[in-house]
Amino acid sequence: DVHVAHVTVYPAEHSVNALEFSHDFFVGIDPSTVKDHSSKKLFDVWKEMNRYYILAEKKFTASGQHEDDFPNFVDSRGYVVYLRKWLEIKPELNNFVKSGMLDKDQFDTLDENASASASLSSSNTT
Hints:
The protein folds into 2 domains: 2-89, no CATH class; 101-126. The chain is 47% helix and 0% strand. It is built from 5 helices and no strands. α2 (39-60) packs across α3 (78-89). The longest helix is centred in the middle third of the chain and has 22 residues, at 39-60.
């Protein structure tokens, strides 16, 4: 359960109480400080973070843009930089962050085998 994991208090020396990355945005942040939030609130926070990440990435990758420092596109939202740094470590989650789906859950509509497989599975359920 996401809510339970989020509000669990760990000993100060536990790995979850350390920032994985250093950046000016993260100075003074204490990850061991936990606030109790409902799962709805956590989902709302995720949606907002995701929206701002996608906006920042669009600006960062826009044609003709000559800036190569992603944090310059996040409008002082350090949590967007933190998400970007995690995606550099776990690139397999990029698709989920950008589209809400994992690679393994998608299929190419131009791939005959994938389309046939999807057709078979949908006809078996009806």
